[in-house]
Write a structure and sequence with these properties.
Largest interface: A-B, 27 and 35 residues
Distance between the termini of chain A: 34 Å
Number of strands of chain B: 15
Order of helices and strands of chain B: EEEHEEHEHEHEHEEEEEHEHEHH
Number of domains of chain B: 1
CATH architecture of the largest domain in chain A: 3-Layer(aba) Sandwich
CATH class of the largest domain in chain A: Alpha Beta
Largest sheet of chain A: 7 strands, mixed
CATH superfamily of chain B: Aldolase class I
Strand content of chain B: 15-25%
Radius of gyration of chain A: 17 Å
Order of helices and strands of chain A: EEEEEHEEHEHEEEHEEEE
CATH class of chain B: Alpha Beta
Number of strands of chain A: 15
Radius of gyration of chain B: 18 Å
Strand order of the largest sheet of chain A: 10-9-8-7-11-12-15
CATH topology of chain B: TIM Barrel
Structural class of chain B: alpha/beta
CATH topology of the largest domain in chain A: Rossmann fold
Oligomer: heterodimer
Distance between the termini of chain B: 28 Å
Shape of chain A: globular
Largest sheet of chain B: 7 strands, parallel
Helix content of chain A: 10-25%
Strand order of the largest sheet of chain B: 3-15-14-9-8-7-6
Helix content of chain B: 25-40%
Structural class of chain A: mainly beta
CATH architecture of chain B: Alpha-Beta Barrel
CATH superfamily of the largest domain in chain A: Nucleotide-binding domain of ferredoxin-NADP reductase (FNR) module
C-alpha cells in the first residue's frame, strides 16, 4: 500500500450515472488486476474504495457509478484537481489459474476491474471470452475496448434492448477453462450456480480503512474469517460461504 | 530525556501518542508502512476470552465529521492472541504494548486479564467496559458505578500490571464512574469510547448498519471527549488517557492541557494510516511555537487559567 497524490487528467460520463476518470501519479505496485484504490474526498470522513480499471505507466483509469455523496462529488471534479489515494489495496485476481480459455463475467460497475484482467490475460496469449451484463442498451460501456483487446465479447441486457436478453449467465459460452467475475451479489450467486469450472469472485463491502486494520468488512469463509479489503476482495469459489 | 516523554501509570513512554484499540489491529498492517516504534505504545484489538466473529456486515457507516462502527469485538480469543499474535507483534514492536480486554461477565474479564498478565510484552491492561456494539456485555459494565467498580476490583486481584479502565461516554455522569473505578483500585482511566449513534438508508428505509446502531467516532466527538477528560481529570488523581476524535498535533496538545497524560488516536488512523507517525514528527515544532519545552509539563495545564 502507498499513499500518494494523483492529478485528474480526464473525468467524463460514459453512461447514465457512470463515469470514467483518468488520474496521473505514482502507479507502482498496483499492476495486479482486481485491486482497488481508496480515495479521500473533501468534506467526507471515510475514503471511498474504487476498483482499478486499468493502469499504464503513470496513468490510472477508474470507472465508477454515482451511488452516493462520495461518488457524486468525484463526478463533479475537473481536470487538474488533485486527489489523495491509497493504492495497491486488496489481493486481486490470481491469473495463474486461468487455463487457456478463461471466461470473464462482469455486471454493471463490476465490469471495470475485468478490463485490466483481460488485458493481462491477452498479453499471456490466453483466449479470453467476456460476458458483459447491463440493464439496458444505454448503460453499456467498454464493449469496444474489450473487443480491441481481442476478446470474444458477448453483451446481455435485462430488457433485451441490446445483445442477448437476460443476465450474464444467459450469455455464458459452453466451454471455458476457468472464470473470473465481478458484479452485484445476486449475479455472483447466479454465476456460482451456472458455472461448470472453478473460478474467482470479487466482492464489495462498506469499508472503514481498506487496508486490513479495522475489521469493518470481515466475512466468513470455509478457511476462516477474511477481510474483504485485505484478504479479498477476490475470493475463490470453493472458499465462499454463500448466504441464501 | 526526550521532549515527548510522559509517564503512564509508572511506565515511561517516549511519546504520548497511542493508537487506539480497534483501529490498529495488532500493528502489522501499519508496521508495513512505517516503523511503529516511534509510537509511545499502542492498544491492540479488543480481546475476549473466546474467539468472536463480531457483528454481520455492514459494520461501517459515514457520519458528519466522523464514522459509525459496529464491528462487535471481532478477535481470535485470548489464547490465540497469546500464542500467535503477540509473538508476531514482538517482531515489529519492541516496547510494552497495551492489552485491550473486553468481556461478557466479570469472570470473563478476570480470566482474560489473568492470562494477559503472564505476558511480558504487555505493559498495561486497558479494560474496555464501554463497547456499545455487543449485547449483554461491554458497555453494560461501564454504565453503572457499581459494576464498573466490581470489574475493576476483580481484575486488580489477578494482575500486577497497571489497570486502565476505558469508559463509555454514554452515561449521565462519567465522573461518578471514573471515581468508582479509582476507589476500586484502577491505576488509570481512558476515555472516551464511541458514542452510540445510528444512520438510515433512506432508499431502503432501514438502518445502514446490520447491528442497527453503532459507535460514533472522529472529529465530531472531539469536544465531547475533551470536556469529559477535563471533568474526570478534576475528579481523580490517577492518570487519564484522552481520546475521541483526535486528528492533529494541536488536538494532542489540547487533550493534554485538559488533563490527559497520554493521548489515544483512533479512527483518524483509518483514513490516514500515517497520522500517528506524522503527529509525532509535528509535535516538537508545534511545542516550540507554543513555548512548551517538555510535553508532560502541560498535563492539565489549562485548569489553572
Amino acid at each position: 500500500m502507498k499513499e500518494s497524490v494523483f492529478k485528474i487528467k480526464e473525468n467524463r460520463r460514459i453512461a447514465p450515472l457512470t463515469f470514467l476518470m483518468v488520474l496521473e501519479g505514482d502507479c507502482s505496485g498496483m499492476d495486479r488486476p482486481g485491486q482497488f484504490v481508496n480515495i479521500r474526498i473533501d468534506g467526507l470522513f471515510l475514503r471511498r474504495p474504487i476498483s482499478v480499471c486499468d493502469v499504464r505507466d503513470d496513468e490510472l483509469t477508474l470507472i465508477y457509478k454515482t451511488v452516493g455523496k462520495g461518488t457524486r462529488a468525484m463526478s463533479e471534479m475537473g481536470s487538474g484537481e488533485e486527489l489523495s489515494l491509497l493504492t495497491g489495496l486488496g489481493n486481486g485476481y490470481d491469473l495463474t489459474k486461468s487455463g487457456d480459455a478463461p471466461l470473464l463475467l462482469g455486471g454493471g460497475v463490476g465490469v471495470p476491474p475485468l478490463y485490466l484482467l483481460a488485458r493481462k490475460l491477452r498479453q499471456e496469449g490466453k483466449e479470453v471470452s467476456v460476458v458483459l451484463g447491463f440493464n439496458s442498451a444505454e448503460e453499456i460501456f467498454f464493449e469496444k475496448e474489450f473487443k480491441d483487446l481481442g476478446c470474444n465479447v458477448t453483451v446481455t441486457t435485462v430488457d433485451g434492448s441490446y445483445g442477448i436478453r437476460g443476465f450474464v449467465t444467459d450469455g455464458m459460452p459452453e466451454h471455458y477453462s476457468y472464470f473470473y467475475t465481478c458484479g452485484p451479489e445476486p449475479m455472483l450467486k447466479a454465476v456460482k450456480k451456472a458455472s461448470a469450472t472453478s473460478g474467482q469472485f470479487s466482492f464489495e463491502e462498506r469499508m472503514g480503512c481498506g487496508f486490513g486494520a479495522c475489521m469493518g468488512c470481515t466475512c466468513r469463509t470455509v478457511t476462516g474469517y477474511k477481510r474483504i479489503c485485505k484478504d479479498g476482495p477476490v475470493l475463490e469459489k470453493e472458499e465462499i460461504l454463500w448466504e441464501d | 530525556m526526550g521532549r515527548l516523554n510522559t509517564t503512564l501509570c509508572g511506565i515511561e513512554l517516549d511519546s504520548p501518542i497511542i493508537p487506539a484499540s480497534g483501529t490498529f489491529g495488532y500493528g502489522y498492517e501499519y508496521a508495513e508502512l512505517y516503523d511503529i516504534n516511534v509510537l509511545g505504545t499502542f492498544s491492540f484489538k479488543g480481546t475476549t476470552r473466546e474467539p468472536r466473529f463480531g457483528n454481520p456486515t455492514p459494520r461501517i457507516a459515514e457520519a458528519p465529521s466522523g464514522m459509525l462502527n459496529a464491528v462487535g469485538l471481532q478477535n481470535p480469543g485470548v489464547d490465540k492472541v497469546i500464542s500467535e499474535e503477540l509473538p508476531r507483534l514482538a517482531r515489529v514492536f519492541g516496547k510494552p504494548v497495551m492489552a485491550n480486554v473486553s468481556g461478557f461477565s466479570v469472570d470473563e474479564y478476570v480470566e482474560t486479564c489473568a492470562k494477559l498478565d503472564s505476558q511480558k510484552q504487555v505493559g498495561w491492561l486497558e479494560v474496555n467496559i464501554s463497547c456499545p456494539n455487543v449485547h449483554g456485555g461491554g458497555m453494560s459494565f461501564g454504565t453503572s458505578a457499581d459494576s464498573a467498580a466490581e470489574v475493576t476490583r476483580e481484575v486488580k486481584k489477578v494482575t500486577s500490571k497497571p489497570v486502565i479502565m476505558k469508559l463509555s461516554p454514554n452515561v449521565t455522569d462519567i465522573v461518578a464512574i471514573a471515581r468508582a473505578c479509582e476507589e476500586a483500585g484502577a491505576d488509570g482511566i481512558s476515555l472516551i469510547n464511541t458514542l452510540m449513534g445510528m444512520r438510515l438508508d433512506i432508499r431502503r428505509r432501514r438502518p445502514i448498519l446490520a447491528n442497527r446502531t453503532g459507535g460514533l467516532s472522529g472529529p465530531a466527538v472531539f469536544p465531547i471527549a475533551l470536556r469529559m477528560v477535563w471533568d474526570v481529570y478534576n475528579a481523580v488523581s490517577i492518570p487519564v488517557i484522552g481520546m475521541g476524535g483526535v486528528s492533529s498535533a494541536e488536538d494532542v496538545i489540547e487533550m493534554m492541557l485538559a488533563g490527559a497524560s497520554a493521548v489515544e488516536i483512533g479512527s483518524a488512523n483509518l483514513t490516514d494510516p500515517f497520522i500517528c507517525r506524522d503527529i509525532t514528527e509535528e509535535l516538537p515544532e508545534l511545542m516550540d511555537s507554543l513555548g512548551i519545552v517538555n510535553i508532560k509539563d502541560i498535563i492539565g495545564g489549562a485548569h489553572n487559567g
